Amino acid sequence: MKTLEDYEREIYHCCRCSACKFIAQPAISSQRFSNICPSIEDRNFHVYSGGGKLAMAYALLKGKVEYTDEMLDAIYRCTMGGACDIQCRVNMGDMIDVNEILHALRVKCVEGGQILPEHQLMVDNMRKEDNPFGKPKAARGDWAEGLGLKDASREKVDVLFHAGCRFSYDEDLKDIVRADAAILKEAGVDLGISGKDEACCGLRAFDTGFRGEMEKYAEDISTRVKSAGATKLVTPCADCFSAFKYYYPWIGVDLGVEILHITEYFDRLISEGKIELRKEFPLTVTYHDPCHLGRLGEPYEVWEGQWKKVLGQMCVSDPAKPLRTGVEGVYEPPRNIIKKIPGLKLVEMERTRENTWCCGAGGGALEAFEAFSHRTAMERIAEAKSTGAEVLVTACPWCERNFRDAIKESGEEFKVYDIAELLMEVRK
Amino acid sequence: MSLKREAYEALKNVVGPENISEDPAVIQSYMLQVAFGSTLTKFIPAALEAVTLPKSTEEVQAIVKICSRYKVKFKAHSTGWGIQGIPLREGSILLDLRRMDKIIKIDEKNMYAVIDPYVTARELQVEAMKKGLTCHVIGAGSQHSVLASATSGWGMGVTANTMSHNSRNLLGFEWVTPTGEIVTTGPVEDGKLGDAGPSLRGVIRGYSGHVGGLGVFTKCAVKLYPWPGQAVPEVVGLNPRYGWKIPENIKIYMLKFPSWEKLSDACYKLNEEEITYILWSYSPNNLILAVTPTNNDYQWAWEQLEEVGQIEANRYPLQLMIVADSRKELEYKEKVLGDILGETGAEDCLPQFFTKETRELMYALFITQYAHGMIFRATSEFGSSYGTYITWDDNMKAAKSCAGVRSKYIEEGKFTNDGFENMWGGPEEQYTYGHNEGLFLPNPADPESMKASLEYIGESDQEVLKQKLMGSLTIPLVVEPGPLVPKDLISKVSNYYIWSKKITDVFDPENLSEGTAYLELTELTEDMARALGAL
C-alpha cells in the first residue's frame, strides 16, 4: 500500500473545482439536496471537503502544518463514504484517487500517534474480542440460535454466511439477520456460519487508519472460506461487503470466491423462483443506497503503474489505471426486490446510487462524532420524507442503526426497514 | 504581521467560535489554488491569518467594520475557485461566504432571481428551470457562484449569445462597502426596480469587476432567461459522463468550417437571423477532453485523429444549439440554418465522436457547463492568454496570430500539444462582437513549463496589441496590472485598471479590501512575489 508521500503528484493535481462537495451536477434536482459531503455541510470550512483535505495533506507533506486538534477534527470528522472520490472523476478522471489519499492520510496520523481515543477504544475492542463493541467473542454466533444452521468451521458448505459485527451483536437488529439466514435456508441454499469463530471484517479499523488490523482479518476470513470449501461468501452487511469486494483487493487479498451481498443473492433466488413472495404489502417506500454497497461496493482493481508525460506535458497513467466511478456498485438488486413485492411502491430520493447521501455511521464518525453522525442521518431522513414515502428501506445494519438512533433522539417519527424485513412481511 | 488578538476576539464575537479559525491546517487548505497559468506554483504561500464564516449581511458588515477599526486587510469569496478569491497580502483575513447560500426569490413574471453569494450556478439553474427559466452559467462551470461573476468578476459562457455577459445580467445588489456601509440597489428589495440608464453597476463592476477589492457583495438580483427545455431534464449516461435526453424542440449541431473567415461569416449570418440559443467555438482538443473520461483515452483519441489528419481538418469548429416553441418555428430555424451552413461550407465536426450519446453529453455540458473543470485534467492547470472582446472577425485574427506565438512552446515540450489555437469563445447577444481567449496547458509541477506560461501570457498580450486588437481586458488575473503586466500595456487598454483603481480608492481609502487586479509588488512578501513569478 502506498504512503501519503506516494500520492504527492495526485494531491497536487487537485484544481479546487469543488465537485467533491456536490452530487453530480447534471443530476442535481433541487438546491435543497444538491450537496454530497456531510463533513463540509457540518463545518463549512473548505478543509472539511475532499479537496480541502487534499490541500491540507499537501501542506503536511511540505512541512507547512503540524498536527493540531482542529486539523485532526478535519481529518476524522468524515464518514469515509467515498462521495468525494467519485465526484472528482468527472473533472479529473483517474488522476486523483481521493479515497485512497484520505486513507493514507489517516494511516500517517495513526503511525504518528495522532489517534482519537474513541478509535483507539474501538480497535482495542477488536484486538480483544474481534468486534468493535468489545462484546464477548464467544457470544458472536448466538444470533443464530435455533435456526439449525451448519457450522462452517466443521462442515463443508457452499455458502459461507458472514453476519458481520453489527448484526451479530445488535439485539434490535437480530431478527433481520435471522430472517436473512432463514430465507436462504428455506430457499435450499447450502449455507453455514462460522459462529463464534467469525471475526470482524476489519474495515472500521482500516477506515480509521489502522491498516494492519484489516490485513489480519482478511487473512482470517480467507482461511475460513477456504477451509469451508465455500464457493460463495454472502453477507447482509454493506460494510463487510465493501471490505471483501473493494478494500481486501486493495490490500492484495483475493478471497477467491464469489462475493455477494444478501440483496444480490435474494434477487437471484427470487428470479429463480426459489423465494416466493406470498402476500401483498401495500406501502410506499424509498430506498437508501448504503455507501459501502454502492460506490464502495465496486470491485477494486489494483494499479501498480507510474505516471508519465505525453503530448508534451499531459499526465497519463502507465499502464492505464482502472477508473472507479461508483457505477459498478450494487444498486439494482435491492430495487428489483422492492419492485417485485406486490403492493410496494418505490419512490426515489434525489440523491441515489453513486450520488447517495451517507447515513453518517462510517469511517469512525459514529464512534467519535456521534452528534455529527446523527445530524448526517437526519439529513437523509429529511430527504426520505420529502419523497412522500411512508418508510425508508435500506440494506446495511450500520445505516439502520444510525437512522433509528438519530430518529429516536430527534423525537421525530419515521420507520426504517431492512430489505429482509420486507421479505419477512410477504412470506408470512 | 499577525492579526491582533483583540481583532481576532472581536471577529469571534461576531461569527461565533465555531465559525472562525486561525488554525494553520484550515488556512493552508485554501492555498492550493489554480491561477490560469499566471503563477509559478499552485501551492500559494499563505498570507492570510484567519478564515471567517459569516452567516448574514449584518455579520459581514460587523466583520468589515472590525477590519476598518483594526486596519486588517480582508477579502471575501463565495465558492472560492481560483487564486483571485484568496487574499494574497500578508496579515489578511478571508470571509468565506459558504453559509450565505439562500435563493431568496425567483420572480417568474419579471424573470429575475435574488440570491446569496454561495448559490451556485447549477443550484440557481435547477430551481429556475422548474419555472421555465434559467440563468447564464459562465465558463467557470456549474459550481461557481453566480453572485461572484455578476458583481465582481468576469463572466461569459456558452449561452452568451442568448444570455449575454454576467456584467449585464446584474440587476441589483446589496453591498457592504469597504468602510462598512450597506448599499442596496435594484430589486434586491421588494418593490424596487432594476437600474435603467447610468447606475452604480458601472461603478461597482464595470466590465471585469473589482475581484473582491470593493468590499463584499452579500446579495444580488440577476436576470433569468426563458428555458425551452424540460423542467427536470432526464439524466442519461453514467459517471463521469452524464448527459441529458435532448427534447424534440432542441437541436445540437457540432460543426466545422474550412477557415476562420467562413466560421466568422457563419456567425455573423446566424446572428443577423437571430436563430441560435447557443453559438460557441470549443477547439477540437476541448471537445475531445469533454468526450473522453481520462487522459489515456484522450491521448489515444488525439493520436488516432492526428494520424489521419483529422485535427487539422477540424481546426475551425463551431457548436450551436437551436430551440423552438413549435414545430413550425423549428422547421423555419432549421431551414435558415441549413442555408447559412451551406453558404459557409459547414460540415459535421468529428462525426465519429458525436453519436447520440455524446450529443446528449454535450447538451448537458453546454447548459450546465458541468465538466468545465475537465480542462484541468491534462496537467492540473490551464492557462488563458490574450483574451479579446471585440468583433468576431477580430477574435479570429487574435486566435490566428497567437497560435504562431504559442506553437514554439508546444514544440519545445513546455505546453501540452493541444492543437493549433485551443480557442474558447463565442459571440454575445446575437451580435457581431464576442469574447475569445486562447487556452493552453502548462504543467505547474514543471518549473520550466510555468516560466514559459508567464512568458507566453505576456507575449500573447503584446501580440494582440500589436495587431491593434483589444486584449488583456477580459480576464483580470492575479497581479494584472501589478508586478507582471507592463504599465505600457495598461495604457493600450484605455488605462482601464487605473480608472478602476481610482474608484476603489474612493470607497476604500485605507486599501483594506483586496482586489486581485491591483496588487503592487511592495504589498507582497518575497515568497508570494516569487510564487507569482514577480521575482
Tell me the layout of helices and strands.
The complex is a heterodimer of chains A (428) and B (535).
Chain A: H1 8-12, H2 38-43, H3 50-61, H4 69-76, H5 83-92, H6 98-111, H7 117-129, E1 150-151, E2 159-161, H8 165-169, H9 174-186, E3 191-193, H10 203-207, H11 211-228, E4 232-235, H12 238-250, E5 258-261, H13 262-271, E6 283-287, E7 306-310, E8 314-318, H14 332-340, E9 344-346, H15 365-368, H16 370-386, E10 391-394, H17 397-410, E11 415-418, H18 419-426
Parallel strand pairs in A: 1-3, 2-3, 2-4, 4-5, 6-9, 6-10, 10-11
Antiparallel strand pairs in A: 7-8
Helix pairs in contact in A: 3-6, 13-14, 16-17
Chain B: H1 5-15, E1 20-21, H2 24-28, E2 48-52, H3 57-70, E3 74-77, E4 92-96, E5 103-107, E6 112-115, H4 121-129, E7 133-134, H5 146-151, H6 160-163, E8 170-176, E9 182-185, H7 200-204, E10 216-223, E11 225-226, E12 235-238, E13 241-244, E14 250-256, H8 260-273, E15 278-282, H9 284-291, H10 295-307, H11 310-313, E16 317-323, H12 327-344, E17 347-348, H13 356-368, E18 383-391, H14 392-411, E19 423-427, E20 433-440, H15 447-466, H16 487-492, H17 496-507, H18 526-531
Parallel strand pairs in B: 2-4, 3-4
Antiparallel strand pairs in B: 1-2, 5-6, 6-10, 7-11, 8-9, 8-10, 12-13, 14-16, 14-17, 15-16, 15-19, 18-20, 19-20
